[in-house]
Amino acid sequence: MEAALRITEIFYSLQGESNTVGIPTVFIRLTGCPLRCSYCDTAYAFTGGEKLAFEDILSQVQIYNTRYVTVTGGEPLAQPACNALMLDLLAKGYHVSLETSGALDVSGVDPRVVKVMDLKTPSSGEMHRNRLENIQYLHKSDQVKFVIADEADYQWSKQQLETFQLVECCQVLFSPVMGKMPAMELADRILADQLPVRFQIQLHKYLWNDERGK
User: Fold this and answer.
1) What is the set of domains in the chain, with CATH numbers?
2) Burial class (CB in 10 A: 0-12, 13-18, 19+), 51
3) Residues whose CB falls within 8 Å of the CB of residue 18, separated by 6 or more in sequence, listed in order
4) Which pLDDT tens digit goes with each residue over 72-93?
């Protein structure tokens, strides 16, 4: 049987998050997610989509003049063939990153893939889904993202930063929930507490007010 994945969309945009923010990137958004985070902005990817063979996916990626590809969702690891697709992308010389909720096992992800993994904060409603054993599989090039909506989220995120000594094993991103935590407030808190994290906003929302960058 030919390898295939259910795809919601493949599109070209500026990377809106992570440490490659601003770089032209092809996004492959897989369909389906087992989580229902309160601040989710891609619920349209929960269902539907189109089953595409790897050959068709790669053909669409090759249209664009970039070496950066982000595999996202939904939750891309909910489809077991996701890892095989990323191997094919690596074999063709792409710089591949994976946006994952952190609720599924990342141990099978090739170490050349940059993992951008959430740790779900209290306001997400899915904190109990955090698969903390995934932390042991993170590398210096990987990133852990905290999406912060309020004071409780911020304090919890600070605690995880210390408990797991995250800056020793990976990069750490603090991101405000748009419309909940003012970006300037989070930036000021990070500076006041001298946290060794990268502050980020969702660049694509400021440019286009949509999801064309994650």
Assistant:
1) 4-208 (3.20.20.70)
2) exposed
3) 97, 114, 116, 143, 145, 173, 200
4) 999 999 999 999 999 999 999 9
